User: Fold this.
Amino acid sequence: MPTHPRVYSAHHAAFAKTKFGDGGSSTPEFDFIVVGGGPAGCALAVRLAESPAGYSVLLLEQGTTVEQNPELQNSTRLPLLTRSLHGSSFDVQYPTVGENQFAHKELKINNGKVLGGSTCINWGIWTRGPKHDYDLWAQLTGNQELSWDAMLPTFKRIERQTSVTVDSPQGPISIRSSSESPRDNYWSGTAALSLEQAGFKRLLNINDGDMLGYGELVENVGEKGQRATANEYLKKTSAAGLEVWTAVRAEKIVFEGEGGDGKTRAVAVSTHVGLVRARKEIILSAGAVQSPHILLLSGLGPRSQLDTHGIPVIHDLPDVGQNLWEHPFVDIRFKLRSDKRRDTAEDLASLRTAGRHLDKWANEGKGMISGIPVEWFTFTNLKERIEPILNKDSSMTEYEKSTLLRPTVPHVEQFLHYGHGLTAAPDPFQSSYISISNVLLTPRSRGSVSLAPGSFNAAQESPCDPIDPRMPRIEVNQLKEEVDREMMVASIEKAYDVLSSKAWEEFLEPQEKPSREAILEIIKERLTTLWHLGGTCAMETTFNKGVVDSTFRVHGVEGLRVADTSVIPFPISAHTQAVAYAIGEKAAVFIGRDHP
Ligand SMILES: Cc1cc2nc3c(=O)[nH]c(=O)nc-3n(C[C@H](O)[C@H](O)[C@H](O)COP(=O)(O)OP(=O)(O)OC[C@H]3O[C@@H](n4cnc5c(N)ncnc54)[C@H](O)[C@@H]3O)c2cc1C
Assistant:
């Protein structure tokens, strides 16, 4: 793979001998080891390696590369084909436990398992999030470098606008808004009008920090409609000190020092192929499920849980794996009248029409396949609706008040699909749809990642298939809290208003707005996840001890950080990839400062 800096795969016969010597006689050593090649890990490893300090950096990824899997390449290039990657070798599909879910479903949560992480299998929606979330991070952690004003230059370092704009930043990840896309969506004007008619205020840019209203989609897609993944960081760097190992699974962290609660230092990563030492630091960027899982397997976590699994306690950290948040979502669909059918995502499920769209994209770089069939987003604050529920709930903490009841925060997001939405099976021969996806951005419900029976013993065994990750027990507890259900109901009611508005009258078959009870049944049937996980190694705040400090250093040990969406203390009102890149970028700054 010539475009990347030195990339080695453990699948190659010579790998073990080259890296670990004959019979494993040597232990490779780097200044820094970054575990996990998703957006946070790639941004962090590249920025560290580009530092003038001349660090040597090893990036470890359990999956293989897109280039090693040519049969999946087209699907990773085109966001609209994302669905075909679900269940492929690039996808972990984390199983979850369903007992506390409102819908009692055992979800399988897709997650990338390939160099580039979930950016290779995601939808390509690009949202930085509201400035008020970052300002609250800064306020609650006491670190002003996490405020919106301090994050803005970080986002500009990541992004590259495909159109020429006045203040055009030039980072590795190309982004564009839907009006700059050659997608040529027939429904755009009608959809915008319907949002106006439903009372939404037009936003000029959904990424300028103020998000209440409706605005255009921004997507991380390059000039030819190709998805920009975290691999862009690796392709664009010439840093000599960066080495990438793929198909290598990190099992646990190895410590030296006193143990117990004394000074203990992380010095090496035990992988399924051998031990690798870090002279300065080890950083976990393995995502919101695997970063806490690796900590637990290494002896950092709630003492009682570690004792139950027979894992020697390095440091008692009760919050590891707790506070798991995610964004639940539910599609509402209205049928297009049969004589009004035009291009929608259903076309891609029919060979005849999909061929036409594929040809158009291949020959002209245009058409609906050159992006996702979404153009408009809405963001709504529901403070007035949820305050009465929270006021009568005596378990409501100050922390929850400070995050949930802000008048500026978007509680729910909606996006308009030209097609059947993300959760329904395509139905090309029967009918075609316009859908609204309703996303709960600020759930109060929390889940957890914990050790599954046998995890520790399994982690000791070696070798095993490097791309078969260890599975912890995952509870997401979607809509467990009443207030979460209320926010979802409010969003769905609004979705009915939008799709029943005058603008859609001649195009859509009418549907009566269901009762509250009927909406709850719809939610039960269609509830799923938007694959945004976070919070499991949260930053310390005024209210919570957390797992890491505000520069992502793990409490109680030295030489170890977590840098990925796990550190986000409360659900951010945004799709999470831009935030993950920003966390990787920030971590490089914090680490560089500690190791001049
Ligand atoms: C189907 C889908 C659609 C999505 N759509 C969007 C979207 O449109 N917009 C958006 O903003 N976000 C979206 N997301 C979410 C976004 O992609 C993630 O939030 C983001 O990728 C998280 O980044 P991360 O670096 O924290 O972790 P990840 O992307 O999960 O990367 C972690 C990496 O670590 C590796 N790893 C894990 N354990 C180990 C180990 N033990 N050893 C070695 N390597 C390991 C994994 O293989 C993976 O490559 C979507 C996600 C999915 C799955």
